[in-house]
Amino acid sequence: VSVKLQGVPLSPCRAKGDVIVRVSCSHPVALEDALAAYAHPLGELHVEVEEPHEDVLQSYQDVAAVAEKFGEAMDAVRRLYPNCDTVHLFASVPPALAVKMGAELSPTIHSPVQTYQFSSQTAPRYNPALLVGERPRAPLTNSEIAQAARGRAALADALADLKLLVQEAER
Question: What is the reported pTM?
Answer without folding.
Answer: 0.78
